[in-house]
UniProtKB/TrEMBL annotation, chain A:
Signal peptide boundaries: 1-24
SUPFAM superfamilies reported in the protein's UniProt record: Cysteine proteinases
Keyword terms of this UniProt record: Signal
InterPro entries hit by this protein: Papain-like_cys_pep_sf, Transglutaminase-like
Protein name, per record: Transglutaminase-like domain-containing protein
Automatic annotation (TrEMBL), chain B:
Coiled coil: none
InterPro entries in alphabetical order: DUF3857 (IPR024618)
Gene3D superfamilies reported for this sequence: 2.60.120.1130, 2.60.40.3140
Record keywords, A-Z: Signal
Name under which the protein is recorded: DUF3857 domain-containing protein
Ranges where the DUF3857 domain occurs: 98-255
Signal peptide interval: 1-20
One matching Pfam family: DUF3857
Length: 628, 747
């Protein structure tokens, strides 16, 4: 408090400033519309370092429909682009008082990137007011100019995209996801300047909607893919990405510059595999070692965003991004004599494959291993997945594998839901108001990876508590004892947990009747989709497969009076099955849930909701045991 | 990924542009960094050497093998003369440094994650309108492998720098760090600034979420500084030695176990700690003498500081130009009230009216130039407490309402007798009327006489300042007031729920009336109320003739603004439904299937009508299970989820700081569907009532209806740990009730 007077002097003295928070508004009420957006992209010759560049001029006019507000204007740029000028107009008059700020753009999960952001607060002074932002930007390398999207954060009345391509520049423009959108294209030739002008005009483009578990933007929004193939300049031809082989050649040129020190890596590989004789043991051990010892830290910094870090440096740092981890995995295996290769791959977030020669096609690197006529893929950024098991995000994806001067296109195998099986088997009996017995649970594939990620993210001393909380679903009446787990540091095998259970107060006694239920976890319960709000298809994290079996001894002196109904739902993308049986004095409960297809299309939401309702109904049923 | 952040403790109100880092500065930085690293690694502290050789326990995720804090307060010139490579700039003779070094054994991946990334600012500008200064942060990191080999991280080479809000931030990913390693790192902050700049208060907290094998402190403070420090909660004292330059403080503690449970704690009052305040020079008027070391300053000293504070605050706000306008506006509102309502404000109520008029001006009134903010976010506006009360004090005096300053320490702040500096205290106002009214500035919905629950039971010095030139304010003029403690029935949530079964028997239709009073009220007010409603209610209560909407509509210039507000109100109204849905879901842990009706009956805006009352009608499924022809109702879930104490929290060794005493009551009337009989009612009744809390359930069936009354009471805002078992008994009873079921048997 001694510093109080000093602080006071700095405070604003008007009473209104008493309110200290600032308020952000969003536009989900359609308060703002972009009435007009005009973007022009002009290819032009540059200098020696950047022989071809693209000048962008964008003029975006926002209109306030309901009530005055302030909105953020945001434009990204990076090492391969510059923002040259930003001009703001309020109701047609230039306003020089509103100045943009420029800073690095931080994203959760990326330690360092060259992404920068230019932002300004744009006022819309009253209902009906128009504010315009005009932006001049330069992209210094056509390789990095790969797509133009039609939608923005707000609904757009009219969006015009003009691409001006001199005839010395060979560019292919691909129209993506135009579907039902009202987009018109015109093309004209300016003979004076010897350039083609492609003009796309889109009317009434709805604003982007950000939703969790939704497909990536390249699947859902209309956009143009700009494929810069080559430039015939006075100084000669510059090849960009004319064909996929050019893309590979460019990647390979970067790989050639890595300068791996094989002797260091070989020494490490020998150390890791010391005492192992079989090839498979060595391969498994190398993969496991990289998963376990190299921390994933993402770097997306200019050319370093495409060029793997030296393997010896990744080894020394004990951290790396996907490229560095893939390269280290490759070299560890290679130095042991295996045929291991670098691979480029676009995860399932990206809609394209390598038929398109563009940097927009991929976003990830992994390692391929050719062994005894079979090809395996190793992605060490998936820390807790086993060998020859694949994360959903790379399954079935086309992959570009290095092969000297050439490349091989292949696909990562697709695994069905059985890779990720989670099973629970319970043998129970009734004692008083409790269900008692033994439980055996097993996890594999991505269900195992998911659980192990939580486990290893928990502090040791809290692990037992956290694991119990997970297994008991924090239900104090679900008492677990004699817990035994398999080795949690060996994710090459099933994760196996066994324990004794006493589920207190789970049997209710009314007169001559006992009531209880056979399912504790009730997976997918309440997982219906709000169709009034959800705009995009729903993506599940991975293909799920749940098997739950419970066997309950019918207590002596009791008979089964009523069993719940069985359930069987079999759809293209998923199945739910529940059956009850009575056998030799036991009630057997069997449940199998599968999510076969991770993408649930919007058209199936109504069916899904009905099926979830049926599943919920099944979960809301109990068995009745009556005294004989 | 969470980055371990090492921000400086000082938060400046004013940030000046980025400190220009010239090549010369960078060179000087590197030179100094090398010198500092050499110095710190050479420290003769055996614990750091021991850590390298010893076998450290691996049962905890991480163990702090050694932690040492080194503090220096001296002069820049002197540091330079001692051979330090620091540049002495004119006007920046105060030198202060703080070095935090720790060696941590990494035993699992969670700990590895915690220590794998750091961020810091190499340079931080401390310039302000009054002060000049620069803070420099230097980091050093070493990794010690299990075989004892030591590798120093080349921090200057490994960091990446990025711009964040116009300032440079350095980020460091620690290379070659693995489970099983020791990380030995330090962060040195050096500040050079003018002698009038404040020095960070020091806080040595003797506890962490991981065990600490050794914690040591060494502070060298020149005799140009005045030092005040306080040992709290059983913390040991420094060994203090005087030398020619000043004083040396040393502290050494071994084997500090990790901290206890996080539930219902007040760390300031429960964890051993030493707090220290360092100030340059002698300031007689503030009782500050250079070279003096004052341990555990007494209550009289606190009052001296608070008196100065009150005088400065008073003087500052009394002279602000905007005060006159504010006085006028409040007076004007009160005059208009009397005129328009034909009602003279009674003298004993003047303070209430003045407060509500002031609150209206701060949070409710709308100007044409304001941003349109009428949604829920407006409800979360918080005032700057000192400014709000500083002005209000002047306004009240202007209205001849006798008022005094009350200084109070939060229950979550330092202990009652643990005064160190004035910043331990918050300000309140208290009217010196027949029935004194306490005034704090919590927010939009604070009633006159609402207190923060954090102040309950605290002893608080109060003073009414003499303003006459002939009268002097004295420490002796303080009165010691004890803030009252509320009773559980004053902070109560009461629900009346009428429940009927839908035809399909598994859907419940619930008609609910909720009344909330006391400290439980404001959270729901913020979530559920809308500006349009509370603005109108307060406008009418203050007798203001025209609403801002009417004024805008009548004004040629602002006519369109009224339309804009109408649109904004509509949007806020649609969001209100979602907020009611959330409220229901939060209580029952089930999303309502359908929200049929929602209505606010009372907003609880004033102390004369303080309860928040609202009605909801909705349907819920998931509480009724089918068993053959019968149905089982999860009766225990009708009162929502109950607090469940985690297994690791049950064995408690520390006192219990409850937020406040409180009551939850549910009066449920359930219509038994025709054709069914209800069984199991007798099993519902229970009563656990002890000195800490109670949980009672009573039920009756009559006229085809079940009447169920459930009441849960937390009787106090504090329980000594000895009574934890009694509290647990009640909490467990409530959780047990959650499993209670009723059978609806087909007749």
């Amino acid at each position: 408090m001694s510093a109080f007077p000093r602080h006071l002097c700095l405070l604003c003295a008007v009473l209104l400033c008493i309110i200290t928070n600032t308020f952000a508004q969003n536009n989900n009420d359609k308060n703002i519309t972009i009435t007009s957006q005009k973007e022009r992209f002009q290819f032009e010759t540059g200098d020696k370092d950047n022989p071809v560049r693209i000048r962008q001029n964008s003029v975006t006019t926002y209109t306030c429909n309901q009530f005055r507000t302030t909105i953020p204007f945001i434009e990204f740029y990076d090492d391969k682009s510059t923002i040259d000028e930003v001009r703001v107009y309020l109701n047609g008059s230039r306003n020089k008082g509103i100045k943009p700020s420029y800073q690095d753009y931080s994203v959760d999960g990326i330690f360092y990137s060259d992404a920068k952001v230019c932002t300004l607060e744009l006022p819309l002074e009253k209902k009906g007011a128009e504010s315009t932002v005009e932006l001049d930007k330069t992209i210094t390398d056509p390789r990095y100019f790969s797509s133009i999207y039609f939608p923005d954060n707000y609904d757009i009345d009219n969006h015009e995209i003009q691409i001006v391509v001199p005839r010395w520049m060979k560019v292919e423009i691909r129209e993506m996801n135009f579907g039902n959108y009202n987009i018109k294209k015109t093309q004209e030739y300016n003979s004076k300047r010897d350039e083609d002008i492609y003009t796309y005009t889109a009317e009434e483009i709805p604003g982007k909607v950000y939703e969790k578990n939704a497909p990536g933007p390249s699947y859902i929004y209309p956009h143009l893919l700009i494929l810069s193939k080559y430039a015939d300049l006075k100084s000669g031809r510059i090849n960009y990405f004319n064909k996929t082989s050019d893309l590979y050649a460019w990647y390979r040129s970067l790989v050639k510059e890595i300068n791996d020190d094989e002797s260091i890596i070989k020494a490490k590989a020998l150390e890791i595999t010391k005492g192992l004789n079989s090839d498979t043991a060595k391969i498994n051990t190398i993969y496991h070692w990289v998963q376990d010892n190299i921390r994933y830290i993402a770097f997306e910094d200019g050319i370093a965003g495409f060029k793997p870090e030296k393997a010896q440096l990744v080894l020394q740092h004990k951290y790396g991004d996907c490229k560095g981890m893939a390269n280290l995995t490759r070299l560890l295996l290679k130095t042991l004599g295996f045929d291991a290769r670098l691979c480029w791959i676009g995860t399932d977030h990206i809609a394209y494959d390598y038929s398109i020669p563009s940097l927009a096609v991929d976003n990830h690197m992994i390692c391929a291993l050719n062994y005894k006529g079979k090809r395996y893929f190793l992605d060490a950024t998936e820390t807790y997945i086993g060998f020859d098991q694949y994360a959903q995000r790379i399954q079935g994806r086309q992959v570009m594998i290095e092969d000297g001067e050439n490349f091989i296109l292949d696909k990562v195998p697709t695994r069905n839901w059985n890779q990720n099986s989670y099973t629970e088997k319970r043998n129970l009996r009734i004692e008083g108001a409790a269900l008692k017995g033994t439980v055996h649970q097993q996890w594999d594939g991505e269900s195992k990876e998911f659980l192990l990620t939580q486990v290893h993210g928990t502090k040791k001393e809290k692990l037992q508590d956290a694991l119990l909380a997970y297994l008991t679903e924090s239900n104090a009446k679900y008492k677990i004892s004699d817990l035994k787990t398999s080795d949690i540091s060996n994710w090459g095998k099933l994760l196996d947990i066994q324990y004794n259970l006493q589920h207190q107060e789970s049997v209710t006694d009314f007169g001559d009747d006992l009531y209880t239920e056979m399912d504790f976890r009730k997976e997918l319960s309440g997982y219906s989709i709000d169709t009034s709000k959800r705009k995009h298809d729903m993506l599940f994290m991975y293909k799920h497969h749940v098997i739950s079996e419970t066997s309950l001894d019918v207590p002596t002196g009791y008979k089964v009076n009523a069993l719940p109904d069985n359930l069987k739902i079999d759809r293209e993308g998923y199945t739910f099955e529940i059956t009850y049986k009575i056998n030799n004095g036991k009630i057997s409960y069997f449940k199998e849930l599968t999510i076969r297809n991770t993408r649930l299309p919007k058209t199936q939401f109504a069916q899904w909701n009905n099926d979830i309702k049926a599943l919920d109904n099944a979960y809301l049923q109990q068995i009745t045991l009556t005294k004989k | 990924m969470k980055i371990r952040s090492l921000h400086l403790a000082i938060l400046l109100l004013l940030q000046l542009p980025l400190y220009a880092q010239k090549a010369r500065d960078i060179r000087a930085y590197k030179e100094r960094a090398t010198q500092v690293r050499n110095e710190v690694w050479e420290w003769d502290i055996p614990a750091f050497l021991y850590g390298v050789k010893a076998k450290i326990d691996t049962t905890s995720s991480a163990i702090v093998v050694a932690r040492h804090v080194d503090v220096k307060a001296s002069s820049s010139r002197k540091m330079k003369n001692l051979g330090n490579s620091i540049r002495v700039e004119r006007g920046k003779d105060l030198f202060y440094s703080n070095t935090f070094r720790e060696m941590v054994k990494i035993n699992d991946k969670a700990a590895l994650e915690e220590y794998s990334q750091f961020s810091f600012r190499k340079f931080k500008n401390l310039n302000s309108y009054f002060h000049r200064g620069l803070a420099t942060t230097i980091m050093g990191v070493r990794i010690i492998k299990p075989n004892g080999s030591i590798r120093e991280v080349n921090v200057d080479e490994e960091v990446v720098n990025e711009q964040e809000n116009g300032r440079e931030k350095s980020k460091l990913a620690i290379p070659d760090l693995q489970v099983g390693d020791l990380i030995d790192y330090f962060v040195r902050v050096e500040e050079q600034k003018d002698v009038n700049s404040p020095v960070d208060d020091q806080m040595f907290v003797l506890g962490d979420d991981k065990p600490i094998l050794q914690y040591s402190v060494h502070a060298e403070i020149s005799d140009k500084y005045f030092v005040r420090y306080r040992t709290s909660n059983g913390a040991p004292d420094f060994i203090v030695k005087k030398d020619d330059d000043g004083a040396v403080f040393d502290l050494l503690i071994r084997n500090i176990p990790n901290l206890p449970v996080g539930l219902w704690m007040s760390p300031y009052r429960q964890i051993p700690m030493i707090r220290m305040s360092i100030a340059f020079g002698t300031r007689t008027e503030e009782g500050q003498v250079a070279g003096e070391i004052r341990k555990n300053p007494n209550a009289m000293e606190a009052k001296n500081v608070l008196l100065k504070e009150a005088q400065l605050t008073d003087k500052y706000f009394a002279t602000l130009p905007s005060l006159a306008e504010l006085k006028f506006q409040v007076k004007n509102l009160l005059d208009k009230y009397e005129t328009n309502m034909h009602d003279e404000i009674p003298e004993d109520s003047l303070s209430f009216y003045a407060y509500y008029a002031f609150r209206y001006l701060a949070f409710y009134s709308v100007n044409a130039s304001d941003k349109i903010v009428v949604g829920k976010s407006r409800n979360y506006s918080t005032p700057n407490n000192r400014r709000f009360l500083g002005y209000l004090y002047q306004v009240m005096q202007n209205l001849n309402i006798p008022v005094e300053y009350v200084f109070v320490v939060s229950r979550y702040g330092p202990g009652q007798n643990d005064f160190l500096t004035g910043s331990d205290y918050e300000i309140m106002l208290r009217t010196k009327t027949a029935k004194p009214v306490y005034i704090t500035a919590d927010g939009v919905f604070s009633n006159c006489s609402d207190l923060s629950s954090e102040y309950e039971g605290q002893k608080a010095p109060a003073i009414e300042l003499k303003k006459s030139k002939r009268q002097y304010n004295e420490v002796g003029a303080f009165k010691d007031i004890e803030i009252g403690v509320s009773k559980p029935e004053q902070n109560a949530k009461t629900e009346q729920i009428a429940i009927a079964f839908d035809d399909n028997m598994q859907l419940l239709k619930m008609k609910r009336k909720t009344s909330i009073k006391g400290y439980l009220r404001s959270d729901e007010q913020k979530r559920l109320l809308r500006f349009e409603d509370y603005y109108e209610a307060e406008r009418l209560a203050l007798g203001i003739e025209k609403s801002f909407m009417e004024e805008f509509a009548d004004s040629k210039r602002n006519r369109s603004l009224a339309e804009e507000y109408t649109s904004a109100f509509e949007k806020a109204r649609t969001e209100q439904k979602d907020d009611f849905m959330d409220e229901i879901q939060e209580q029952f842990d089930i999303k309502p299937k359908d929200l049929i009706e929602y209505k606010i009956e009372k907003m609880g805006l004033r102390h004369t009508d303080p309860d928040l009352v609202y009605h909801t009608t909705f349907t819920l499924d998931g509480l009724v299970k089918k068993a053959g022809n019968n149905y089982i109702l999860n009766a225990g879930k009708l009162i929502g989820e109950q607090l469940q104490i985690k297994p690791e929290q049950r064995n408690r060794k520390v006192d219990v700081y409850q937020p406040f005493a409180r009551t939850f009551e549910y009066q449920i009337e359930l219509t038994i569907p025709k054709g069914y009989t209800l069984e199991g009612v007798d099993k519902l009744n229970k009563s656990v009532d002890n000195e800490c809390a109670s949980f009672t359930v009573t039920s009756t069936v009559a006229d085809g209806k079940l009447q169920l009354k459930v009441r849960k009471v937390y009787k106090h805002n504090f329980e000594p740990v000895a009574k934890w078992e009694s509290l647990l008994q009640v909490l467990d009873a409530a959780v047990d009730f959650g499993n209670q079921k009723l059978l609806l048997k087909k007749a």
